[in-house]
Records
---
Amino acid sequence: MLETIHFLNTALPLFYLATFIVYFLDFKKQKKTLHNSKRIFLFLSLLFHLFYLLSRTFEFSHVPITNKFEIFTILAFSIACSYFLLELFSDIRGTGVFILGFSVLFQIASSLFIEDLIEVREVLRSPLLGIHVFSALLGFAGLTMAAVYGVLFQLLYKRIKLNTFGIFFEKLPSLETLEKLNFYSVIIGFILLGIAIGIGVIWLPVAFPDYSYLDPKLVSTLLVWIVFGIGIFMKIVIGWYGKKVINFFLVGYTIALLSMFLSNVLAKSFHSFY
């Protein structure tokens, strides 16, 4: 099993790089063969990655969340998986090149520096903690995708206003499509982040004697979830659309980044495992 884990650790960056190249070539040339085959590349990469994560979990008796390079491989999987869900949900396949590059970078960093840790804190062996962390990372991956589509929307919007287009902008989806992808990504992130918060509120007090509902990471994550919840409400109920809702979600993502930085770097939290 250990040999398989090490093989997959080496091969996964190549899987993701190949997938990224296929999506890039499809974006550049827009050929039917590439359009139909790139989802297969992505699916196989996710399948091998899932097998890798499960193999590490069973081999070392803990979910791979014990150090930042284990977190990086889950981030790579989370981003690719969130995009795959978005593609299935929307059936819009032309934007993977803007998302999957993040998976390539995170997986390369993980594969280069990850360590096989056997001795870890007992709480890190809990499957519920693994689901909590995994859901949170999937949620933030969804919000990151939303931010990417928001930035693309803003760039294309400015080009339309100036009536100047290059090859890059001509190949982008329409503003309406980018807004739809932005909103779908927000929904994915909002639901998965909500699952992570729910597990955290119910289970973490049992697992951690020093747990506090005022924990900086919990408060900051809840704040981000509420902000995006307000944005979803404003779009569905109030009827916000276009640049207004895109700007709101971009502000929400900026708040998410700031809260993550402050809670991880400046604040003391029981969430600190390593």
---
Amino acid sequence: MPDATFLVRQRSLLAFAGKLMGFTLLAVLVFIWLGPVILVIMTSIKSNDAFLAGPFALPTEPTFAPYVTVWNSLGFGRLLANSFLYAACGSALAVVLALVPSFALSRFDLPGKKIVFGVILTGLMLPQQTVLIPLYDTLRTLSLLDTRIGLIIVHAAYGMPAQILILRGFMTTIPREIEKAAFLEGATDFQVFWKVILPLSVPGILVGFTLNFIAIWKEFVFGLVLLNSEANFPVTVGMLKLNSDRYMAVFNLPAAGLVISQIPIVILFLLSYRKLSSGNFAGAVKG
């Protein structure tokens, strides 16, 4: 019969093996996720000849010339400004349009509420290609085709269903006691929405805004179809010039452009991470 020392050692070995397997799996997943990112960054700081000589080799003579070339040749500052305008204004407008419907769907017992909510959510199921023709005709009729305001409105309308889904779910978690206390103080429905529900929904608003901002920043189809002037192009459409050749012979320039285009998203995540993860209702309801 095995002694106690042997059993302790066996359990320790099994625990160590489990931790080792978990660490190995985590390392593999991290490599799979970070591998392409690292490869793009390495490509962006190589000369094209160095890349062709060794695509996966570490850069021996790093250079930032591709970044300078891309920035100057594409007018990257204008492209980034356009993308920021579309993402910020489109996301903000989508949130504003979704606030009142989300409040009504989360706090009121309306007839046919589930049907209305289901109809709204169908907007999440429609691929962009299915709405391109009606959107194009609508914008042309309203003289908003190839305009910044037109694309902002499109992004806001297309992002509103996702905002309603996020905000309705968030507002549903707000304790009813807070709302009842406000009504006992003589507050109206609008005052409850404006002074109680809206301030407590800031974390949900930030989540919805951030996700929609990222989605609009990466969006390509609407910008390609609904815009014709290069002055209005977002960064995703403007970077097409880097791949305009039938057989692409330069690899470091697209990699540099890709890195530049993702920097604002990384900054947004770093700035919003604490706020996104710290929202709660601690102390909102007294015991």
---
Amino acid sequence: MKTILITGCSSGFGLETARYFLDRNWKVIATMRTPRDGVLPKSEHLRIVKLDVTDSDSIRRAVEEAGPVDVLVNNAGVGMLGPFESTSMDAVRDVFETNTFGTMAIMQAFLPQFRARKTGVVINIASSVTLKALPLLSVYTASKAAIVAFTESLALELKEFNIRVGVLLPGMAPETAFANNAHARVSHSFPDDYAVTMNSVLSGFQNYDGLVTHAIDVAEVVWQAVQDAPTAFRLPAGADAIEWFNLS
């Protein structure tokens, strides 16, 4: 029985992916910054581990508690929306600490065991906004674009150790907690000149009725990638992401 460790499992993509693998008789290590009972079905194959991807001590403890892992899914992330001009550099660093540096730190912590066993799969969850530029998402997009470039380069240096590395590109997912997560980082103070753009973008999100991504879409693509994807893969997840990917 193989083991998968997934970061950011309290809701959304991480939670659904944990359920998906549990249903298919995998051992699942579901990590959360604040562990919560009851979000996943009780199972002898499930462990919930406390993990803050921005805290080196938390990462060290989680790696020790997890033990050997076959698949690592870096899903933990935060959103941000607003004009870059009025975004503090502290806020920018906060987004990068989780989305970019957190992902890197988790990978660095688990790679020694993958290299020693000459096997393993790492899947980093980025975003389809790296395929199609959108206004007011410059910081979030940059944090995810960095992960796409990082993953594609890292895959080349890990290929000789039989470690498969790739990135998933989910689309807009209204059913997840991402919108609420991002709302906490929406710029509420910005030059008046940006008001029209802010109102237009926020209205577009609130009234959006186009193609979307569901959490199950991401879980299914993670499963497919674990089964048979080559190294250095880029995979869209969700109807909107697939459309953008085909147009890019």
